Automatic annotation (TrEMBL):
Protein name as annotated: dTDP-glucose 4,6-dehydratase
Taxonomic lineage: Bacteria, Bacillati, Actinomycetota, Actinomycetes, Micrococcales
Enzyme class label: lyase
Protein species of origin: Sanguibacter biliveldensis
GO biological process: nucleotide-sugar metabolic process
Pfam families according to UniProt: GDP_Man_Dehyd
Family: Belongs to the NAD(P)-dependent epimerase/dehydratase family. dTDP-glucose dehydratase subfamily.
Known cofactor(s): NAD(+)
Keywords, comma-separated and alphabetical: Lyase, NAD
The keyword Transferase is annotated on this UniProt entry: no
Catalytic activity: dTDP-alpha-D-glucose = dTDP-4-dehydro-6-deoxy-alpha-D-glucose + H2O
Length: 331
């Protein structure tokens, strides 16, 4: 089987490629990645001899048409993915998340290729802290940020292309991922690399906001379950019942590093900051028999800390620039 992975040099995409090479030797993997600030060739170094990396943009219709025409399956991870960046400069989000997805859909339609669309729970907006509800595939879309609204728009393009043109598509909306190879602009690796450098973790606002954490390996095993067993045209929500508020996450990291639980700084809150995400993944579990393997958040976090300690060469080159960007935004 010939598989095209867009965004395969990013966090979740590179882990997906590693898992695929490890567990499915019959799959021939091509990665299409523009290698933006968030993409890194070295994330694919351990599988470099087994994967073809094409450096290019998903908005390049000619290139996309050729690569999709040479594939049996497209899994679309490529995106501008960081909420804070979308607040300071929304344009790349419109370009990549909307125009890029449109470009892929047109190629998939033309060549009749199976397509899986990777999306986020943020398309549903947020929940109150005391709301017993969780997101399901029937929750109305209500995105808050330029990032989540462009992801929501991309999901709606997929639904329309499936209904109007009959493309063979599935969609997954996953909660917050953690694990190796995550860009250090994101919450958990930012705090881990700060702690390695002796800098205090930075908590936005009061730290009450809740995210539903899932290990990246579990996200990717769910994606494979949907590709193999999911019903065409369906949306599946991926989550591992990992709700934690940001304060709890920072306190756990401080404990892992052996520092006092209150040794962190409160910084300026994110404008429009979503309060809580929570996924009801029963459709995925009941219909497809999927289960997460990483059910203990603390040990998953410990392993992630070890990975960042052991792979300083991977993240060190982007640390100063990332922190300079945060300093300019008051975070
Ligand atoms: P990331 O920012 O780490 O990686 C994105 C990758 O896409 C990078 O390699 C980048 O170079 C590439 N890319 C960006 N623009 C491109 C373009 N125009 N053409 C080709 N390649 C381009 O992101 P991530 O955290 O790995 O997220 C991957 C996908 O998963 C995204 O679609 C995101 O919305 C979704 N998602 C992420 C999370 C999470 O917690 N990180 C949760 C749910 C869903
Ligand atoms: O330094 C920080 N301090 C802090 O308190 C940073 C960077 C973040 N935060 C807070 C903001 C959020 O409540 O931590 C939480 C997580 O922040 P991010 O890592 O920026 O993730 P989030 O905005 O929740 O979005 C993530 O999950 C859904 C991914 O970046 C998205 O790509 C995915 O769709």
């Amino acid at each position: 089987m010939r598989l095209l992975v867009t965004g395969g040099a990013g966090f979740i995409g590179s882990n997906f490629v590693h898992q695929t090479v490890r567990e499915r030797p019959d799959v021939q993997v091509t990665v299409l990645d523009a290698l933006t600030y968030a993409g890194d060739k070295t994330s694919l170094a351990p599988v470099a001899d087994k994967v073809t990396l094409v450096e290019g943009d998903i908005t390049d219709a000619e290139l996309v048409d050729r690569l999709v025409g040479e594939s049996d399956l497209v899994v679309h991870f490529a995106a501008e993915s960081h909420n804070d960046n979308s607040l300071s400069n929304p344009w790349p989000f419109v370009q990549t998340n909307l125009i890029g997805t449109y470009t892929l859909l047109e190629a998939v339609r033309k060549h009749g290729v199976r397509y899986h669309h990777i999306s986020t729970d943020e398309v549903y907006g947020d929940l109150e802290l005391d709301d017993p509800a969780k997101f399901t595939a029937d929750t109305p879309y209500n995105p808050s940020s330029p990032y989540s609204s462009t992801k929501a728009g991309s999901d709606l393009l997929v639904r329309a292309w499936a209904r109007s043109f009959g493309i063979q598509a599935t969609i997954s909306n996953c909660s917050n991922n953690y694990g190796p190879y995550q860009h250090i602009e994101k919450f958990i690796p930012r705090q881990i690399t700060n702690l390695i450098d002796g800098i205090k973790p930075r908590l936005y606002g009061k730290g009450e906001n809740v995210r539903d954490w899932i290990h990246v390996e579990d996200h990717n095993s769910a994606v494979w379950a949907i590709i193999e067993k999911g019903r065409i045209g369906e949306t599946y929500l991926i989550g591992a019942d990992g709700e934690k508020n940001n304060l709890e996450v920072v306190e756990t990291l401080l404990e892992i590093f052996g520092f006092a639980k209150d040794d962190f700084d409160h910084v300026k809150d994110r404008p429009g900051h979503d309060m809580r995400y929570a996924i009801d993944s029963s459709k995925l579990r009941d219909e497809l028999g999927w289960e997460p393997a990483y059910t203990d958040f603390r040990s998953g976090l410990e392993a992630t800390v070890e990975w960042y300690k052991a792979n300083e060469a991977w993240w060190r080159p982007s640390k100063d620039a990332t922190e300079a960007k945060y300093a300019a935004a008051g975070h």
